[in-house]
Design goal:
The chain has 262 residues and is an alpha/beta fold. The chain is 37% helix and 24% strand. The protein has eight helices and ten strands. The protein has helices spanning 42-50, 90-102, 111-127, 143-155, 173-190, 201-207, 239-249, 253-261, and strands at residues 4-13, 16-26, 31-36, 57-62, 65-66, 75-78, 161-165, 193-197, 210-215, 230-236. The two termini are 35 Å apart. The structure holds adenosine-5'-triphosphate (ATP). Residues 13, 18, 36, 38-44 line the site of adenosine-5'-triphosphate (ATP). It comes from Thauera mechernichensis. InterPro entries: AAA+_ATPase, ABC_transporter-like_ATP-bd, ABC_transporter-like_CS, ABC_transporter_ATP-bind, P-loop_NTPase.
């Protein structure tokens, strides 16, 4: 059974149909790049997967069960900008994700639990290359560093699905390349299912194991809101990389641990 099943999903706001009849199966560990014209509903689709909004019609299933229409730790999201909290340090931005669910009233843990949350956060920040910036504030970070922080913030909850809405759109080409490498490494290591909206087709081709093209094929000038976008192309990509990841995932843990250290 597919991890994500999208069954005849429609979305509309007032009398404007945005998405029509999306049908899609996504397996655990796929990396889907979503492309399409501006305004055709890609972010709307991510918001439905996140549980921020419900489909107007149709259903989304996760592991065969209806998706709960509220944010849930199994789903992490990174936006192009403004994902991180400006008044918290880098370390606190990431540790907060662990603290909030465990201490919902005060929002903070104390003693050993707090130390553990901070140690875990610091380890992940080292993994994304931010170990030298734990006490800095987001405004003191470059764009690339802020996105590393946003990725760490999303990953600390160990989500199964990572949703990325043009995460590298505001970055310089050199920094983008570094971020691509980091994202692929994290994807390879974690078995995450990734859905990434991008306006850069080459980025989609480089990173994705699958390219989903959203397009509005029907248009009625008399009723501009009548039709929405559909997925018009669903192309498999980078099959070698997918196969490599599957082969790595099949190796015993002691071997992969040694590989990572190496
Ligand atoms: N909450 C909302 N209420 C009303 N209309 C909305 C709402 N959210 C999105 N829309 C409309 O739905 C359409 C799709 O928007 P969406 O942001 O999903 O497109 P997109 O493909 O992600 O665009 P872009 O590539 O420019 O980010 C737009 O016309 C937008 O104005």
């Amino acid at each position: 059974m597919s991890f994500i099943q999208v069954r005849n999903v429609w979305q509309q706001y007032g009398d404007q149909t945005v998405l029509e009849n999306l049908r899609l199966d996504i397996g655990q560990g796929e990396f889907c790049a979503l492309v399409g014209a501006s305004g055709c509903g890609k972010s709307t689709f991510l918001r439905m997967l996140l549980g921020q909004e419900r489909p107007h019609r149709g259903q989304i299933l996760l592991d065969g069960k209806p998706l709960v229409a509220e944010p849930d730790p199994s789903r992490g999201i990174v936006f192009q900008r403004y994902s991180v909290l400006p008044h918290l340090s880098v370390l606190d931005n990431v540790a907060l994700g662990l603290e909030l669910p465990r201490a919902p009233l005060l929002g903070r843990l104390f003693g050993r639990a707090k130390a553990e949350a901070r140690t875990q956060a610091a380890q992940l920040l080292r993994r994304v290359g931010l170990d030298h910036a734990l006490d800095k504030y987001p405004s003191q970070l470059s764009g690339g560093m802020q996105q590393r922080l946003a990725i760490a913030q999303a990953l600390i909850m160990k989500p199964r699905m990572l949703l990325l809405d043009e995460p590298f759109g505001a970055l310089d080409p050199g920094i983008r390349k570094d971020m691509h490498a980091l994202l692929l490494e994290l994807w390879q290591e974690t078995g995450l299912t990734v859905l990434m909206v991008t306006h850069d087709l080459s980025e989609g081709f480089t990173l994705g194991t699958r390219l989903l093209v959203f397009d509005k094929v029907r248009n009625d000038p008399q009723a501009p809101g009548a039709y929405g976008a559909r997925i018009t192309y669903d192309l498999p990509l980078n099959l070698d990389r997918r196969a490599t990841r599957e082969a790595v995932a099949a190796l015993p843990a002691h071997v992969t641990g040694a590989l990572k250290t190496a």
